[in-house]
Amino acid sequence: MRMRNRHARALLAGTTAAVLGLAGCDAQGGDAASGTRSRQAKPSPTSLWDSSPDSVAAVGDSITRGFDACGVLADCPEVSWATGSSAEVNSLAVRLLGAAKAATHSWNHAETGARMADLPAQMVRAAAEKPQLVAVMAGANDACRQSPAAMTSVADFRAQFEEALGTLRRALPKAQVYVASVPNLKRLWSQGRTNALGKQVWKLGLCPSMLGDADALDSAATLRRATVQKRVEAYNTVLKEVCAKDARCRFDGGAVYDFRFGTDQLSHWDWFHPSKDGQARLAEMAYRKVTAKTS
Questions:
Q1: Which residues pair with 206 in a beta bridge?
Q2: Phi and psi, residue 117, nearest 5°
């Protein structure tokens, strides 16, 4: 989740480094002994879900690109939680397909800096691969703006996510979708602010709506952070509600948002994006949800 503006990239490069930021009715029949009529239940999301897809595509932002997990100011897709090849991470694709098959049957169409408005175009590219599963993680950049006033509105966020899913559905009606929740940005602030270098990097433009004036604890700063956090929670509600309307979509239930990550899970280049360890935790959460018998 690239929480920086484009100008911050140049500044970060000049210092040390520019974040972290995881359905079921059985067919019901009548009781023959009681003489009730046998009937078939309406298919549920669980009955349509395949926990063993044979191909995976990923869309989203810099988290899914592995940004700053391997080096400064660079994507590192090989450690992506969704489609990476790194044995340290053991990505969702590798867990589902095995390393050899994942190399040829998984694709990463996420983009560093992407917001929800960028997701429909990513879905077009992902659909061209004809994946059986599409992994989605987006929304942090919608909250990480120059100020709370610049955040994507909840209504726009909903419309954009609905458009993205609709784009995929028109191309691939039966593709499955795993949707990760937006990470807890306030926890990121509380963890990263313990590192002096991290706070210096943040000053160069990383997620100023949440991370600006990291040491400030006055009422204005507290209100600003609470406003951003409330928006993140609203985004997660949107992801849950929109996904629930699609029989082949699974939301993570807030697993990523609720994960109590520490500094070991943050990039030590920017104290914001996931480290390799953080990426591995995201992969584990996704795998549990995708392979669960119930959503």
A1: 4
A2: -60, -20
